[in-house]
Write a structure and sequence with these properties.
alpha+beta, 44% strand, 1 helix, Lipocalin, eight-stranded antiparallel β-barrel, 151 residues
C-alpha cells in the first residue's frame, strides 16, 4: 500500500513538472489574460503578440481605479511626462518581451511598475502549477510575483 501511495505521489509530481515544461516550451503560450496582486494593488493584464514576434502586456482592469472624487486615476508617476495622462487601466507595463527558447523563458525587456514609476529587467516563466512567474530586477535586487491566467 505504501508503495502504491508513493507511486501516485511520484506520478502527480512528474505530471505537474511536465505541464510547466510544456507551457515554457512554446513562446505563444504566454499570450492571454492574467490577474495578479502587487502589495495592495489588484490588476488584470492582457498579454498579446506583436507583429515582430515579441509580446506586450497592458493593464485592462485595476481595482480602485478611481480617486475619492470619482475621477479615474492616471499614470502620474511615469518618468515620461507625455504618458502621465494614460488611465491606470490602459497602461502598457511591458513591450518587446521575447521568448528565449534556449532557456525556455521570456526576457529581453523591462517591466514598468506604475505605482513607483520605475522600470526593471523582466524575466517570465511558468511555474509547475501553471501560474506565470513574473520577476523584475534592478541589478542584484529582484521581486517576483505570480500571475494567474483568466479562463
Amino acid at each position: 500500500m505504501t508503495r502504491y501511495i508513493c507511486f501516485i505521489i511520484f506520478m502527480l509530481a512528474a505530471t505537474t513538472a511536465i505541464n510547466a515544461q510544456n507551457l515554457n516550451g512554446n513562446g505563444d503560450n504566454i499570450v492571454g489574460k492574467y490577474e495578479a496582486t502587487l502589495n495592495k494593488d489588484s490588476f488584470k493584464v492582457n498579454i498579446t503578440k506583436n507583429a515582430d514576434g515579441s509580446y506586450r502586456g497592458q493593464l485592462f482592469w485595476v481595482k480602485d481605479a478611481f480617486d475619492k472624487d470619482g475621477k479615474k486615476l492616471c499614470d502620474e508617476n511615469n518618468p515620461d511626462k507625455s504618458l502621465r495622462n494614460v488611465p491606470c487601466d490602459r497602461i502598457v507595463i511591458f513591450d518587446g518581451l521575447k521568448y528565449n527558447a534556449a532557456k525556455q523563458r521570456w526576457d529581453s525587456t523591462k517591466i514598468y511598475e506604475p505605482r513607483r514609476g520605475i522600470k526593471a529587467n523582466l524575466v517570465c516563466r511558468f511555474e509547475a502549477d501553471g501560474r506565470l512567474k513574473v520577476k523584475g530586477s534592478l541589478g542584484p535586487i529582484g521581486e517576483s510575483h505570480l500571475w494567474t491566467r483568466l479562463k
